[in-house]
Amino acid sequence: MSDELWSLIEPLLPKPAPKLVEGRPRVPDRQALCGILFVLHTGIQWEYLPQELGFGSGMTCWRRLAAWNEAGVRDQLHVLLLEKLRSKDKLDWSRAVIDSSHVRAARRGPKADPARSTEHVRAASTTSSPTARASRSRCR
């Protein structure tokens, strides 16, 4: 992650609470963010985040992401990055997509054809015998 991007993100992150119990040192936020981006970019499961990369454990990164989302960091970062891109005229709206799960449709669509009748009609059975008593074959 570039220093420029980190300088935008760092002020948005909540300050960590003081540790109540001694233990492992806290993974720095920048390293945890790199681990989060690695998982999101590669699609690997959190638990398989390689420790050798120095991002901390997958669970640490997952917890940090959850805490930051709860603190509203993602929404703030989204707004900040959109403003920055707009100011440099770097937004390409030709690739934007809007669907009804995010924006309410203004009008209803065309009326559908009338539904088929749900009246009870007896259909021929393919599993029962037409005779009063079905015969069974016996395997011996």
TrEMBL record:
Residues 103-140 are annotated as: Disordered. Residues 1-78 form the Insertion element IS402-like domain. InterPro entries: IS402-like_dom, Transposase_6_like. Transmembrane segments: none annotated. This is DDE transposase. Residues 110-122 have a biased composition (Basic and acidic residues). The lineage of its organism: Bacteria, Bacillati, Actinomycetota, Actinomycetes, Kitasatosporales. Residues 123-134 have a biased composition (Low complexity). It holds the Pfam family DUF4096. It comes from the Bacteria.
